[in-house]
Amino acid sequence: MIDSSTLAERPSHVPADRVVDFDVFSPPGVEKDFQDAWAALQVSGAPDIIWTPRYGGHWVPTRGRVIAAMFRDHERFSSRVPQVPKDQGELYEFIPQTLDPPRHRPYRNLLNDSFSPKAILRMEDRVRRLAIDLIEGFRAKGRCNFVRDYAEILPIHIFLSIVDLPIADAPYLLNLANQINRPDGSMTLEEALTNFRDYLGVWIDKRRGGEGRDLLTKLVNSEVEGRPLSRDEVLRMTNIVLLAGLDTVVNFLGFMMLFLARNPEHRRKLTRDPGLIPAAVDEFVRRFPVVLIGREVTRDMDYEGVTFKKGEMVMIPTMLHGLDDRENPGAPTVDYRREKSEHSTFGGGVHRCAGSFLARAEIRVTLEEWLSRIPEFHIEEGAEIRHNGGLVGGIQELPLVWDSPSGV
To answer: Using CA atoms, how far apart are residues 353 and 97, in angstroms rounded to an integer?
Structure first.
């Protein structure tokens, strides 16, 4: 677990009115509502860019306009270090996440075909069959823990099928992903990353020279700039691909279903008019982002009224773009007919999430198949819903109940 108790001294170039003691991994009130805990920065009237003394001291943009601009500006805000404190962030070394153009592009091209809209369309039947099987597996019981019984299964099993890794390994890999994105102190970040690499290394060696059509085999036997990928490069690529596939959609689905459980009229709008579901996907994606992403300042500069120094860190909260009233009037309100929807839920610029089409497909299929089978549901009486912070926000448990089908 990263220690946030030591506060860095304010550097002389940081104005006092930009300083806000804010813990990006555990914002005040995060256990009650992850997105609201972040939105409090905007509600409080904090500057568009603040500096916090936590984790060695770093910058945080609070407004959508600045967030989007920083994501696009890889020349001034490098992806080399994706997390604070900086010495921890330098352990990641993922490809292509920690590379900037032009080095980034050849590696990203290797991923694009597997996650293109055409590739995801071919995969949709698989996603739908699994969604139906999971829902039918507990529908007659009249209850489920949505996080454990659905969200931690569907996207993870789909992703493991893409890389052709054993479904039985999902719990082990999910635990490692949790220790990287939301550490509980049971292992260090270095240990979690090493375990991840060791696991994948075995499979990479097995797939060398193989002819399988899965993504892992393709990467192992790919070339970049006219030469084969090295084992280290394959490890660094598969680490981030697998980590992203194991965690982000899992946690997003929990927030979406929590909202629907608490807001029956929103749920009924979708059951009465399933044609609204694609728009609902867009709106939920805007309203419930989960990811915090780091960038390293590449040069001394004046930017948006503040002075940045080369090597400083910026932690960019995707949450605050979609929740910004300046970008999305009435931002806290979920509106399936919203005319304008601005957000950075999938990041932005050259590093925009390669898996965004897959994520949208999984979200849409979940809404279609769940609401057609369990249109009315609510949170189990007396249940305490606790949210988690971290690099990826989440919900610990989500016990849902509903009337069992008649005759069952």
So the answer is: 10
Residue 21 is which amino acid? D
Whether residue 96 has a cis bond before it, omega within 30° of 0: yes
Position 203 scores a pLDDT of 95
| 8 A C-beta contact, residue 152 and residue 391 | no
Averaged pLDDT for residues 287-304: 97
pTM above 0.85, yes or no: yes
**Measured between alpha carbons, how far is residue 143 from residues 108, 150, 178, 245, 385 in Å?**
41, 12, 25, 26, 16
Q: The domain 16-401: what is its CATH number?
A: 1.10.630.10
The H-or-E segment that residue 124 falls in is helix 117-139
Map residue 190 onto helix, strand or coil.
Answer: helix
User: Where are the domains positioned within the chain?
Assistant: 16-401
Q: Is the pLDDT of residue 405 over 80?
A: no
Q: With CA atoms as reference, report the closest residue to 286 among 340, 236, 358.
A: 340
| pLDDT score of 227 | 95
Structure tokens at 372: 């057609």
The continuous run of DSSP H or E covering 11 comes out as none
Q: Are 307 and 10 in contact (CB under 8 A)?
A: no
SS3 label, residue 402: coil
> Residues 342, 327: contact at Cβ < 8 Å?
yes
Contacts of 350 (CB under 8 A, 6+ apart): 74, 100, 101, 104, 105, 108
pLDDT of 408 strictly over 50 = no
User: Residue 207 and residue 212: Cα distance in Å, rounded?
Assistant: 8
Query: How many Å apart are CA 213 and CA 221, to the nearest integer?
Result: 11
- 147's CB contacts (< 8 A; 6+ apart) are 250, 254, 395, 396, 397, 398
Q: How far apart are CA 332 and CA 35, in angstroms?
A: 9
Element counts in the chain: helices (H) and strands (E): 15, 14
At residue 285 the predicted structure's pLDDT band, cuts being 50, 70 and 90, is: very high
The answer to whether residue 210 scores a pLDDT higher than 60 is: yes
Sign of CA dihedral 19, 50, 178, 295: negative
